Write the structure tokens for this entry.
Amino acid sequence: MHITFVKKQNPDGSSCGKCEEVERRLERDGHMARIDEIAIADLADPDSRGMQLAKAFDTAYAPFFIVREGDETKLYTIYLKFVREVLEGRPPPSAQ
């Protein structure tokens, strides 16, 4: 499994508040070790890695997570869903 965490950087160079909050939660809960890559979606640079990923996955939300496992790739834009399904390994409620 490969997990990419994409966070946004504003045109003035400041970090996205929500992205920083999510990163703090990942660190606090001991999940940062599971993140394989952090990509920055620099709003001032459409060619930045994070902006390319946002375009490829057709999302305007940040932060988001891309989870690749084998031939399957899944996008998560909701942090708690990502934690529940990927980091804690619990299936979605409809699958229980």
In short: Helices lie at 17-28, 49-56, 79-87. The first helix runs from residue 17 to 28. Strands lie at 2-9, 37-42, 64-69, 72-76. The domain at 2-95 is CATH 3.40.30.10 (Glutaredoxin).
